[in-house]
Design a protein that fits this description.
By secondary structure, this protein is an all-alpha fold. It contains eleven helices and two strands; from the N terminus they run H-H-H-H-E-E-H-H-H-H-H-H-H. The chain has a two-stranded antiparallel sheet with strand order 1-2. Strand 1 and strand 2 form a beta hairpin.
C-alpha cells in the first residue's frame, strides 16, 4: 500500500510539473500584463504540435525538438501579442480593454487557434513515440524515464526563469513592468518590448509542457481545453499572480488528482482538482502563497 501511494505521488508530481509550467505562464502574463490569458491552453497544444512536426518531419532528437519547439512557440506568442493583443493597448503600455472585454478576447483567440490547428492537423490524435529507455528501479518502485524527463526538465526551466528574473537586467525590467508600467516607462524601460518578452516567455513555458506530456498522451487539437482548466485551478490554489504559487499549486493539483484516482475512483479524476480548489479558497481566498491585492482584469 505504501509503495502504491508513493508510486501515485511520483506520477502526480510528474503531471503536476506540467500543470505548474502552464500555470506559471498564466501567472506570468497576469502579473506582467494584468490579463487572464484564456487561450494559453491552445498555446500548449500548438507547442506540442510544433514539437511533433520537428520530431517526425525533421527527425530531430527529443532534446533539440523540445528546445526548438519552446523557442518557436515563444515567437508565436510574441507574434500573437504584437499583432492582436497590442491593438488593445495604449501606446503599447497598459491594456485599455479591461474586465469582461479581455475575457471575451481571450476566449476568441482560443477559438481562433483551435480552428487554425484543426485546419492544419485535423481532428485525429497523433502519437509522439519517444524511446526514453528503461525505467529507473528504486527498490520495489520502477520510475518510467518519461516521468523523470518531465520532472528534471520542468525544474531546469523553472530554475532558469528564476535566474533570469532575479539576476539579469531583462528580469529587472520585466519585474519593473509587472510592478508599475508607468513608472517603468519613466525609468527608461522599453515597456512594449518587455510586454512582448513576458508573453513570449509564458508561451514558451506552455510549449515546454506540451512537448513534455506529448510522449505520454496523444497530441490533438482539443488537448488544450483540459490543461487550461487544471492549470487555472493550480494558479488559483497557489495564489493567482504568484509565480512560486503557480508551481506549488500545480504540484498539489497533480498529487491530489493522482491519489484521488488511485484510492477513490479514476472516473472522477477531473473533479479532485476543484475539490482542492474549493477547500483552499475556503481557508485562504487569496490562495496558499497569494496576498490580498487589487482586482485585475
Amino acid at each position: 500500500m505504501i509503495d502504491y501511494a508513493i508510486d501515485l505521488c511520483i506520477i502526480g508530481l510528474s503531471v503536476g510539473m506540467v500543470y505548474a509550467l502552464v500555470a506559471l505562464g498564466i501567472s506570468l502574463i497576469f502579473s506582467g500584463l494584468d490579463i487572464v490569458h484564456f487561450a494559453h491552453g491552445e498555446i500548449y497544444m500548438i507547442g506540442a504540435f510544433i514539437g511533433l512536426m520537428l520530431f517526425q518531419k525533421l527527425a530531430l532528437p527529443y532534446v533539440p525538438t523540445l528546445l526548438l519547439a519552446v523557442i518557436l512557440t515563444g515567437f508565436v506568442g510574441v507574434f500573437i501579442e504584437r499583432v492582436f493583443y497590442r491593438r488593445l493597448t495604449r501606446a503599447g503600455g497598459g491594456y485599455t480593454v479591461a474586465g469582461m472585454g479581455m475575457v471575451i478576447v481571450g476566449f476568441g483567440m482560443s477559438i481562433v487557434l483551435q480552428n487554425v490547428a484543426f485546419l492544419i492537423w485535423g481532428p485525429k490524435p497523433f502519437p509522439f513515440p519517444v524511446p526514453f529507455g528503461r525505467p529507473i528501479e528504486l527498490g520495489n518502485l520502477a520510475l518510467p524515464m518519461s516521468y523523470v524527463w518531465i520532472v528534471v526538465t520542468a525544474l531546469t526551466l523553472m530554475a532558469a526563469l528564476h535566474l533570469v528574473l532575479r539576476k539579469t537586467m531583462i528580469g529587472l525590467a520585466i519585474r519593473a513592468v509587472a510592478h508599475n508600467k508607468d513608472i517603468a516607462y519613466l525609468s527608461g524601460v522599453n515597456v512594449p518590448l518587455m510586454i512582448s518578452t513576458i508573453f513570449g516567455i509564458a508561451c514558451a513555458l506552455g510549449a515546454a509542457a506540451g512537448v513534455l506530456i506529448a510522449p505520454i498522451n496523444y497530441v490533438q487539437v482539443q488537448m488544450g481545453v483540459g490543461i487550461l482548466i487544471k492549470a487555472f485551478a493550480a494558479a488559483v490554489v497557489g495564489g493567482f499572480g504568484s509565480l512560486p504559487g503557480a508551481v506549488l499549486g500545480g504540484l498539489l493539483v497533480g498529487v491530489v488528482e493522482s491519489l484521488g484516482a488511485g484510492f477513490i475512483s479514476g472516473t472522477y479524476k477531473d473533479i479532485y482538482a476543484f475539490v482542492l480548489l474549493i477547500v483552499v479558497l475556503m481557508v485562504k481566498p487569496s490562495g496558499i502563497l497569494g496576498v490580498a491585492a487589487k482586482v485585475k482584469a
